[in-house]
Amino acid sequence: MENMPFVYGLLAMLAIALLHAAYTDIVRREIEDWLNAAIALGAPLFWWACGLSLWPDVAMQLALGAGVFIFFALMFALGAMGGGDVKLLGAIALWFPWGVMAKVAIAMSLIGAVLTVIILIEHKMHRKLGQPEVPYGVAIAIAALWPVGERFFNHFA
C-alpha cells in the first residue's frame, strides 16, 4: 500500500496523543477536550489512508464509536468514569475495528484493575483522606497503545 508512511505517521500521532492523555490524567486528573477532538478528527484521515470504503467500513467505525461512547456515557452517569475518559474511549473506537476494540476494552479493564489496586495501596499507606481518584486515562491509553504499537513491533509475525 502506497499510503503506509502516512498511516504510520497517523499512528505515531495517535500514540503521542495517548501518551499526552495519560500524562495529563496523572498530573491533573483531566483529559482535555481538544485532545479528544484531535484524536476523533484524525480517524477519518486514518480511514482514508487505509482505504476504507464509506459503506460498510466507515459506517461500522462510526457506529462503533457511537456505541462505545454511549455505553461509557452510561458509566459516567453512574459515577464510574470521568467525562474525559468517556470521550477518549469514543474517539479511540473510531480508529480500531470492533474485534481490536474488544481486546482494548479487556486490556483496559485488567490494567485499570491493577492501577486501582496500586492507587488504593498508596492511598492507605500515606493515610490520605477521602476517596482515592484513579487516573483511568492511563489504563485507557496503555490499552490503546498496544494495537498501535503492534503495527510497528509485530509486523513480522
Automatic annotation (TrEMBL):
Residues passing through the membrane, by range: 34-55, 62-83, 95-121
Major localization listed first in the record, in broad terms: membrane
Localization annotation: Cell membrane
UniProt entry tagged with the keyword Membrane: yes
Prepilin type IV endopeptidase peptidase domain ranges (all copies): 13-117
Membrane topology label: Multi-pass membrane protein
Keyword Membrane: yes
Keywords: Cell membrane, Membrane, Transmembrane, Transmembrane helix
PANTHER family assigned: PREFLAGELLIN PEPTIDASE (PTHR36506)
Protein name: Peptidase
Protein source organism: Blastomonas fulva
Taxonomic classification: Bacteria, Pseudomonadati, Pseudomonadota, Alphaproteobacteria, Sphingomonadales
